Each structure stands twice: as C-alpha cells, then as structure tokens.
User: Fold this.
Amino acid sequence: MLILLNLFLLLGTVAIHAMTNNLKENIATKGKAVQSSTYYLKADAAIDDIDFYCTHTKTETNPWWRLDMKDLQIIEKVIITNRMDCCFEQINGAEIRIGMSLENNGNNNSKCAEISGISARQSVSYSCGGMQGRYVNMVIPGDSKNLSLCEVEVFVNDSLKIRGRAVQSSLLEYFRADRAVDGIKYAPGTASFCTHTQSQTDPWWRLDLLDNYYISSVTITGRADCCSQRLNGAEIHIGNSLEENGNNNPM
Ligand SMILES: *[C@@H]1O[C@H](CO)[C@@H](O)[C@H](O)[C@H]1NC(C)=O
Ligand SMILES: *[C@@H]1O[C@H](CO)[C@@H](O)[C@H](O)[C@H]1NC(C)=O
Ligand SMILES: *[C@@H]1O[C@H](CO)[C@@H](O)[C@H](O)[C@H]1NC(C)=O
Assistant:
C-alpha cells in the first residue's frame, strides 16, 4: 500500500527530507566541459576521473575552463588536481567561480576560491560553503597565461537528497517537482529551489512517500521573491488512490 500526499500548489517547499551527511559523490563526471581554447588537450580531460590526462588551453589572456552541471547544484567543495610533468606553478592565481550566469563566459560568477599554489600531482580541496550554481569555472586572470587542469571534482551535500518521489502536472523551466523536497527552502535572490508548474487549470504536485505513514503534519513554505498569494486556495489531499492523479483523496 502506498500513501500519497497531494497538494495543489504553484510553488513551495514540503518539509520532508532524509538525514545523511556525506559528501561522497563527484558530480563533475556527469557534466560537460568546455574551455576558452585548446592546445592539444581537451576540456573533458579534467572530468574523466583519470588524473593522468589533463586539459590545456593555448597561451592567452584570461584562459578559462567551464563545467556545465546541466542543473542547479548546491556545491560544498571543489577538488583540483595539478599537472605532474612540469610547470605546476602555472595554476597560481586561478580562480574557482560558481553561479548561474554565462556573462563573460561564466567567469563573472561568484568566487569560491583563488588558488595560491598546488604542488605537482597534488589535489587540493576548496570549500565553497554551499554556493549555488549550474556552472563551475576556472579562470586565470592576466596576459600570457596557460590553464592546465588534470582533474576537477565537484561535490554536493548529500544531506540535500530527496525522500520520496515528487511529480507535478507540468513543468516550467527547471522548477522541477523535487525542488520542494530537496531540503532547501529558499536561496536568496532566486526562486530556483522551488517548484513551478506552467499556467494551467487545476495545477497539482504530488509526493509519493514510497511506504505507509501516518501523516501528523505537513509544512509548506511559499516562495519569498514574489506572488506568495498564488498558493491561496491550494488544497492538501492525502490518501492511497491515484484516481484523478491522487487529487480525489480526502482533503
Ligand atoms: C565581468 O567583470 C569584470 C570585472 O569585474 C567587468 O569589468 C566586466 O564588465 C564584466 N563583464 C561583463 C560581460 O559584464
Ligand atoms: C605557456 O605554455 C607555452 C607552451 O608550452 C610555454 O612556452 C609558455 O612558457 C607557458 N607560459 C607560462 C606563463 O607558463
Ligand atoms: C550539509 O548540509 C546540512 C544541512 O544544510 C548541514 O547541516 C551540513 O553541515 C552539511 N554538510 C557538510 C559536510 O557541509
């Protein structure tokens, strides 16, 4: 038997989330990498999970490398592995930048760290304290610079993992149904961590808890940036039926 929690809503957060506290998954390997120019060694060599293969731009002004994670992420740390053959001081002054914007090729996003130095073949971890973004950039400001990276690993906070399976009647941009159960209520300046349906008749959102539960309370968080009145009139339905997408369950 299955318990379904049904909510008619446009945006919000449901306070149900799992509690683990690991940082074990490197999500960089699932992304796509590009760089400002290529001197033999391609951009994806930094996300191939092999330290031996490295990237290399041409010698240029402000060379950069960018990882597209294809979705918003909350990033806890980035680990950079330097080259082992020579010239390991080339990386000095490189900046790690994280954000949503592609302005200036993503290099104008917020700075997580500036690399003062990494010894040959070594990996250094930079804490980004929960910065949010879709892009991770590496950029070395200045003229006649080479950017070479042997591995870039990106870790997100596992405690933000979702419990249950969320779906909704339609999707607007990247405001997916699981954003309401990701453990993030609201990120300043954006409603990115909320859900959003398209404009439609009787929009709904549904959480499948994947097991039987007695539900004692449901906490809903509305969006903070605007339009909080859009939640007015939303109904919470709970039950086992999927009739009418679960919306016929008792209110
Ligand atoms: C990016 O930031 C630099 C330095 O702060 C600034 O000069 C430049 O105008 C910005 N680029 C864009 C495209 O806004
Ligand atoms: C950049 O790489 C080129 C080609 O390997 C090299 O000649 C040059 O010295 C390097 N520049 C710096 C600043 O390391
Ligand atoms: C992961 O996020 C949780 C909840 O925000 C926080 O309490 C915890 O300190 C974070 N863990 C790490 C390793 O950053």
Notes: The CA atoms of residues 21 and 159 lie 5 Å apart.
